[in-house]
Specification:
alpha/beta; Zincin-like; about 180 residues; binds zinc ion; 4 helices; 9 strands; 5-stranded mixed β-sheet
């Protein structure tokens, strides 16, 4: 494999990373951002995952007009639970509150690739704020999807399709 970890190395890291509470936790750095994995979604165990996170973040930062400094010092957490807690918003598919948390499930199905999570949406909040989603870019997604299309997804049995977020608007406004 040209880069990243082999599956065997990932398994070794996963075993070393087993915390006392029993969940699967591991992590890595992308630039100055800490990525934490709390899910067994297959794409997070793929050798290309760190590079895919970085390239997806780069595309999202480009789309929103941000830079890596907007994410410096933040954490990005991939959660296996169907929802993440998000302050007064309650259970959500993603959250930005200084850190980013996204679920790796979508309507009961495990997501097949990082590009299909709500990560690019939450990067938008990190760059422009706009908790009310007033900016038209929340609805205008074609330019962003073009940069992420055609990649490989993964499920428990191997490679599958990867459908990037069809819309940077992935959760309804407030409630
Ligand atoms: Zn939002």
């Amino acid at each position: 494999m040209p880069y990243g970890f082999t599956m065997r190395q990932w398994l070794a890291i996963a075993l070393l990373g087993l915390p006392a509470c029993g969940g699967l936790t591991e992590g890595f750095q992308v630039r100055d951002t800490t990525v934490t994995v709390r899910t067994d979604a297959a794409f997070t165990r793929s050798a290309d995952f760190p590079a895919r996170v970085e390239s997806t973040l780069q595309s999202a930062l480009d789309y929103w007009g941000g830079s890596w400094s907007d994410l410096a010092g933040s954490a990005i957490v991939f959660e296996g639970a169907a929802h993440v807690e998000c302050g007064s918003n309650g259970p959500s598919t993603g959250c930005f509150d200084g850190d980013i948390r996204v679920t790796t499930q979508d309507a009961g199905r495990t997501i097949s690739c990082v590009e299909a999570t709500v990560l690019v949406h939450e990067v938008g909040h990190a760059v422009i704020g706009d908790a009310g989603h007033d900016d038209p870019r929340w609805m205008d997604f074609a330019v962003l999807v073009e940069t992420l299309i055609g990649r490989t997804g993964y499920d428990a049995s191997g490679p599958t399709s990867c459908d990037p977020v069809a819309n940077v608007w992935r959760h309804p406004p407030r409630g």
